[in-house]
Structure formats: structure tokens, C-alpha cells
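INTERNAL AUDIT FORM
Audit reference: QA-55
Scope: verify that the stored structure record matches its stored sequence.
Auditor: D.O.
Record contents follow.
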Amino acid sequence: MIDGILFDVHRTLVDDSGFPRERIWRLIAGSGVEIDLDAYYKQYHQLSAQMFDWRRIDPFITIREIHRRRLLRYYELYDVKRDVEADLEYLWREMGKSKIYPEVPEVLNHLKGNYRIGLLSNADDDDPLIEILLNAGFTFDAVVTSQACQIYKPDTRIFDYALKALELDRQQVLMVGDSLVSDVAGAVAAGIDAVWINRSNQSLQKEFPKPTHQISNMNQLLVILNHRRYT
């Protein structure tokens, strides 16, 4: 019997429409630097994959600090003379313009009262996406961030913190998230059933464990929960 659900936030409950990818390019281009957008996107993804590799961040630094270091790297690379701290604050505010996925409110409202609901996110305590959910009126039985724990998913210790916060055993909980690295592999290693929300129809890579369930939108989670409740 499932009694609790842990949700990732970014690209699980909230999209990345407010994220820095194009905004950093505009800051650079607005400083008079000619930078091809396609080449920049390729570089952005490579740099982000390197800097946001949760398994290799040691010692721990905050998400905000990772964003700051990435922005500084770009400004040094293109010799941009801008106020990094002011631009970082701008990017942080812009992330707060991201949108909750359309089906999420109905699903969260349906789950409330029937399950203990928690957020488990590689995020700072003042994460803009968590604030979007809270400001929209959603409440959670637990909100566990990497900053509070000083560790990132997929480290199994952060899942232990979340289970303690929900006051549930690992057999009673589902982890729902979009990342094969942090959400699926982390949950499986922690002995928690994983629901991979695969909104972009990605292929399951062989190096990652198979999730317990795979869905393409959050409505399908309700079908899984209903099936597990009565089987």
C-alpha cells in the first residue's frame, strides 16, 4: 500500500520556461558580443551538464552558487563586463516565471488528504520553483531541499531525510521525477519505487536502472495509484 509520494519539482511539477538558457545569451549579446545562438545552445548544454553533475559536486555548494559560477564562466569566456551578482539576481527572479504544468493542480488536489505528499528537490531553500507551488496555494507534508541536507540526489541519504520527514517507510512511498540520474537511480538505490515522468519521450538509457513505472503526464500517476491500491 502506498501512503506517501515524493515529487521532484523542476520538469516534474513545474516547467523550465523561466530558466536562464536564452536569457544568458541575451545578456551576452546585449553587451555587444556576436554569439551564434545555435553554437551557444550547444555550449550551454555541455557546460550545464558538467556543472550540474550532482554526483560530482564535492564539497557541497548551493544551486545559486552553481548558477553564479556558470554565468561567471560565460562572462570570462566572452570578455563581458557586467555585474555578475546583479545579473544572477535577475536570472533567479526570471526562474520564478516558470509555469506549473497544466494537469498538476488537479492531480495534487486529488492526492491531498489521501496521501502524505512531499517535495524532494535538488534546490536551495529559496528555490523559485518551490515558491511558485507554495504561492499557488499548494501545501506539502514535507519539503526537503539539497541545501537543507547539504547533499544532492541521487545520494541515498537525502531520500532518508525525506522518508523521516514524511514519517513513512520506504516501502510506503513512491518517488516521482523526470531525472534518470537523480530521481530514478537515486530512488532505486534507496529502496524506493520510482515513477519516471518522461514528458519528452526519451529512451531509457541502459546505464540507468529501470523505473517501477513510466508516465508521460501526471494524470497517469492517478491510474498507477488506483491500480496499486486495489491489487
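Auditor finding: record pair retrieved intact. The first strand starts at residue 4 and ends at 7.
Action required: none
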